[in-house]
TrEMBL record:
GO terms for cellular component: cytoplasm; DNA polymerase III complex. Residues 131-249 form the DNA polymerase III beta sliding clamp central domain. Keywords: Cytoplasm, DNA replication, DNA-binding, DNA-directed DNA polymerase, Nucleotidyltransferase, Transferase. The keyword Transferase applies. SMART domains: POL3Bc. Forms a ring-shaped head-to-tail homodimer around DNA. It is found in: Cytoplasm. Belongs to the beta sliding clamp family. GO terms for biological process: DNA strand elongation involved in DNA replication. InterPro entries: DNA_clamp_sf, DNA_polIII_beta, DNA_polIII_beta_C, DNA_polIII_beta_cen, DNA_polIII_beta_N. It comes from the Bacteria. This is Beta sliding clamp. Residues 1-120 form the DNA polymerase III beta sliding clamp N-terminal domain.
Length: 372
């Protein structure tokens, strides 16, 4: 194998594939990226056995071939090369060593046999459909912050992707929850997604998908079965195992009788929450919210740091209410509201609140209160 490639092109693709590789591996080959040069294309492949990324990029290929090289080391080398330079890569099959040259720099990396590199199975997908990059980003961004990190409830460690009917119209819905908050977002059901199985896409897969979508591809092709999901974004292919298990009936935790409605300017409210929570002493950065006719008062206290209070104008005409929230969770939700106004619907001090954008019902957030 011998090829020449522009440094920035190689760096961007290495950045995508090396992030899949775990820093600590008991299986040496999983620390490597597979490199295959053929027909003017360099294909980079990395996997952790549950998730696989393949990225194909144009290169000036002088001699076809394939090898594997340490993923993180290769990425760091290319990252530190001068911007705009050309990178020459060649592989010596007798010594099983790859040489990388650029300008006056020369590196030699030990390789492992390409035959040892594992690949995920192909085929077997029951449903395939296309989603615009904007729509897929919307589903991911509006829900992924609520994915649980608690390994004991492994079935919550991802986004639940499934079909739903909203006001009589079929939709593709994404849901995530960690037991303290819930995020639900939906888009119009893509053609080909009808009758698809509900699947739980792992947290790491969601993160890698979001990185790939930053390149702004027009469409994302999604193929899935009951055990795997594959995303195709231009020249990148992301294949992942799904989380086995049954996602809980999240509809049961979404209240339907919250009749105390509050509308507030999202930015003014978010900024005030951020400021007031600065003095909060507990790990949850708890804040107290007191609401009465046309006024919202945020407060926090700390025996060591002191206390803080700030008033924000709002639209509210129901009975006075005092409720506590985890300020970090509240800010996470507010950051996903794109419009200028947020709508909070509550029932009482102890019941979960519903938060949504005033002018958009395609995303709903549920936040559990905390005792203050």
């Amino acid at each position: 194998m011998k090829l020449t490639i522009e440094r920035s092109t190689l760096l961007k693709s290495l950045g995508h594939v090396q992030s899949v590789v775990e820093r600590r591996n008991t299986i040496p080959i999983l620390s490597n990226v597979r490199l295959q040069a053929r027909d003017g294309v360099l294909a980079l492949n990395a996997t952790d056995m549950d998730l696989e990324v393949v990225k194909s990029i144009p290169a000036s290929v002088e001699r076809d071939g394939a090898t594997t090289a340490p993923a993180h080391t290769l990425f760091e080398i290319v990252k530190k090369l001068p911007d705009g330079c050309q990178v020459e890569m060649s592989w010596d099959s007798e010594r099983n060593q790859m040489t990388l040259r650029s300008g006056r720099s020369r590196f030699s990396l030990s390789c492992l046999p390409v035959e040892e590199f594992p690949t995920m199975e192909e085929g077997g997908y029951s449903h395939t459909f296309a989603v615009s990059s904007n729509d897929m980003q919307s589903l991911v961004d509006r829900t992924r912050f609520a994915i649980s990190t608690e390994e004991t409830r492994y079935y919550l460690n991802g986004i639940y992707l499934h079909t739903a009917v909203v006001d009589g119209t079929p939709a593709l819905r994404a849901v995530a929850t960690d037991g303290h908050r819930l995020a639900k977002a939906e888009i119009a059901l893509p053609e080909g997604a009808a009758d698809m199985p509900g699947v739980i896409v792992p947290r790491k897969t969601v993160s890698e998908l979001r990185k790939l979508m930053e390149e702004g591809n027009a469409d994302v092709s999604v193929s899935l079965s009951t055990s795997r999901i594959r995303f195709v974004l231009g020249s990148a292919v992301l294949t992942s195992k799904l989380i086995e298990g049954t996602y809980p009936d999240y509809e049961q935790v979404i209240p339907h009788n919250n009749d105390l409605h509050l509308e507030v300017d999202k930015k003014l409210f978010s900024d005030a929450v951020d400021r007031v929570s600065t003095v909060s002493g507990d790990k949850h950065r708890t804040i107290k919210v007191r609401i009465e006719d046309g006024s919202l008062t945020l407060s926090a206290s700390n025996a060591e740091a002191g206390n803080a209070q700030e008033e924000v104008e709002c639209i509210y005409s129901a009975q006075p209410l005092e409720i506590g929230f985890n300020s970090r969770y509240l800010l996470d939700i507010m950051s996903q509201i794109e419009g200028s106004a947020a709508r909070l619907s509550m029932a009482d001090t102890a019941s979960p609140a519903i938060i949504r954008e005033s002018a958009d019902d395609t995303a709903v957030y549920v936040l559990m209160p905390v005792r203050v």
